[in-house]
Design brief:
about 70 residues; alpha+beta; 3-stranded antiparallel beta sheet; 1 helix; extended
Length: about 70
């Protein structure tokens, strides 16, 4: 498991769990926001789905700061 700081984090690294889980024979991934995506036929397919999801999220404009 990766125990590095994320961008903007300071202090101790918080506990993190895997984004992937299996129910029956189907695989899913979960996001920080609590969104579960799937089912996928394999963990490899779920990992590919997560990569596609993250690529789309990176294209979204940043939310304006409230400061």
């Amino acid at each position: 498991m990766d125990i590095q700081h994320r961008t903007g984090e300071e202090g101790p690294v918080p506990f993190r769990s895997s984004r992937f889980f299996c129910v029956g024979s189907r695989w899913y991934f979960t996001t920080r926001e609590g969104f579960d995506s799937g089912p996928f036929a394999s963990r490899q397919r779920a990992e590919q789905g997560l990569e596609r999801f993250l690529n789309v999220v990176r294209l979204l404009p940043e939310e304006p700061s409230l400061h």
